[in-house]
Amino acid sequence: MKRRELLTLVGITGLGGIIATQLPNFNQANAQGSTELEPDTDLNLPQGEPRLRFVSVADTGTGNNGQYAVAKAMTQYYRQAPFPLALLAGDNIYNNGEIEKVEAVFERPYQPLLQEGVKFYACLGNHDIRTKNGTPQVEYPNFNMQGRYYTFRRSIVQFFALDTNPNANWDDQLEWLDEQLNQSRAPWKIVFGHHNIYSSGVYGVNERLVSQLTPLLKHYDVQLYINGHEHHYERTQPIKGTTYLTCGGGANPRPVGQSDWTAYAKSELSFAAYDVYADQIALRGINKDGKMIDRALIPRTT
């Protein structure tokens, strides 16, 4: 997509048609670093518990202090807002996807969540396919992958996991995604893959995926695309109806800038948390200290 076309697109979906609304009054962590969730009165949420809670994080598999700090923050968040599932948006095992490292870079940092029964659903990143094209990770039970690309439904959300690597079988995958999105009757459709589509980081706008994926996201009213690859947190304004969320601050942050369509961006160790209601998702960006760095509402329909 050319810059002129992008600016036109943003103008169409910009101030007059913003779907995701950034909100102030982030709550602070307590002295122990755990998140104290205060009532979201300013979010104007419906009464009662959300239909589904989940979290997402990416570019985690280093085994370094940063990964363990984010994993600890995720565990602290779980203790106050339990969630049954977590999305791992790729680069699950650095540097080359060696499955023998899975204990140090997955089982150990997320042990408290795994013991609570939280299921992690992974997709393949570019580092993951360096060993046997990622097959050992596809076959690893705790990544819950039903193939190189797959779909599953929880409550009112259907998730679609993609293999966004350039060597993926794109003809078959896109045909599959078209069919699955067409068949889905879930009110919420969330697609996740490793590679960014819109980003203000090192890689910028991914023209290949803009061409291959965004027409399907628009056609089937996919509300949210979640990715890693870029090592930062970034939420876009809705672009043709879809909000793009980068959650690649799982272990080793990199710098991020701002684009015309950026709603919020920060280079910080972090993960994203989601409360799904019938007609809106409350999205929170949370850093390694348990502080909210971003908060927004994503309505189900425009």
Can you tell me about this structure?
By secondary structure, the protein is α/β, with parallel strands linked by helices. It has one domain (53-299): Metallo-dependent phosphatases (Purple Acid Phosphatase, chain A, domain 2), CATH 3.60.21. The protein has eight helices and 14 strands. The chain has helices at 3-13, 65-80, 102-107, 111-115, 135-139, 170-183, 207-212, 214-219; strands spanning 21-22, 52-57, 85-88, 119-122, 150-154, 157-161, 188-192, 224-227, 233-236, 243-247, 262-266, 270-276, 280-287, 292-299. The strands form two sheets. A seven-stranded mixed beta sheet has the order 1-14-13-12-2-3-4, with helices on one face. A hairpin with a 4-residue loop joins strand 13 (280-287) and strand 14 (292-299). The longest helix is centred in the N-terminal third of the chain and has 16 residues, at 65-80.
Major β-sheet, in short? Answer: 7 strands, mixed
CATH class bucket: Alpha Beta
- The overall pLDDT, averaged over residues, is 89
**Which descriptor suits the 3D outline?**
globular
Classify the helix fraction into a percent range. 10-25%
Give the SSE string: HEEHEHHEHEEHEHHEEEEEEE
Strand arrangement across the biggest beta sheet: 1-14-13-12-2-3-4
* Beta-strand content bin: 15-25%
- The CATH homologous superfamily corresponds to Metallo-dependent phosphatases
The number of helical elements comes to 8
How many beta-strand runs?
14
Structural class by sheet pairing and helices: alpha/beta
Distance between the termini: 23 Å
CATH architecture: 4-Layer Sandwich
Uncertain runs: 1-39
Taking all Cα atoms into account, the compactness measure Rg is: 18 Å
The tally of domains stands at 1
What's the CATH topology name? Purple Acid Phosphatase, chain A, domain 2
